Amino acid sequence: MDRSRQNEWKQAAAEEAAKLVENGMVLGIGTGSTAAFFIEALAQRISREGLRIAGIPTSEETAEHARRLNIPLTSFADHTQIDMTVDGADEVQVETLFLIKGHGGALLREKIVASSSKWMVVIADDTKLVQRLGSLCPVPVEVVQFGWQSTERKLQKIGAKTALRMDSSGQPFRTDSGNYIIDCDFGAMQDPKETAHNLDHVVGSVEHGLFLKYASQVLIGGRDGVRTLMRVNS
User: In angstroms, rounded to a whole number, what is the distance separating the alpha carbons of residues 47 and 35?
Assistant: First the structure.
């Protein structure tokens, strides 16, 4: 689809998410193109309204963007509990709000922040909605550099078609934590919980991009505006 139209939808969802931020919140701030729109909208509220927040960024890229816009940042040393996190997603499973995240390369820090949050708001556009996770993109898996070839073989044994992620210079992509990412294509998953369980037990893997039961609320931008999906607790 047209990239400019898609960006309009992302921006609309991000601006709606910024409206949910309340004075005094400790806020997890995500990484990626959609999260960048949120950072811009949040900075406008801080400048216009004098909104007081303390942000915990999920990447060095996000931290730099926030600092440029004078968004106050903090760390887990001062705040171990996050009131709300706002972040994007690469895929959103409509029925469950299960996610694939990590194509921006920040999945480890994103999951640490999400797991420490009382509420997680996911912002995305209509193109990210799927009936089954894995329909559009692979699952990123962050792995330690040492023995990554052995880790990749382990991932292949649990059914993944694997590819080591490369950067723009043709070298292995390195995360902020100095790890590699292996993108794992499982196809459209019948049971993402089983896949997540298998990934949890791969030696050499640090974390994976299946975010199951993290999203509390999803804001989806589309041609008819922004709609809200809420997780139903079973």
Answer: 18
Strands of the sheet with 84-87, listed across from one edge: 54-57, 26-29, 84-87, 120-125, 217-222, 225-230
- CB atoms under 10 Å from CB of 25, counted, come to 18
d(CA 222, CA 228) in angstroms, rounded, equals 11
Kindly report, residue by residue over 7-37, the tens digit of the pLDDT: 899 999 999 999 999 999 999 999 999 999 9
pLDDT beyond 80 at 231: yes
Domain range 139-207, CATH class = alpha beta
Give how far the C-alpha of residue 100 lies from the chain's centroid of Cα atoms, to the nearest Å: 8
b/e code 64-79 from CB counts within 10 Å (16+ = b): ebbeeeebeeeeeeee
Query: Hey, do 3-130+212-222 and 139-207 end up sharing a CATH topology, with the first three levels equal?
Result: no
What values do phi and psi take at 82, rounded to 5?
-105, 130
Catalytic residues: 110
- Contact of 106 with 59, CB cutoff 8 Å: yes
> What's domain 3-130+212-222's architecture?
3-Layer(aba) Sandwich (3.40)
**Could you report the per-residue pLDDT of 51-65, keeping only the tens digit for each?**
999 999 999 999 999
Q: What is the pLDDT of residue 2?
A: 74
Extents of the domains making up the chain: 3-130+212-222, 139-207
Q: Give the tokens for residue 184.
A: 């794992």
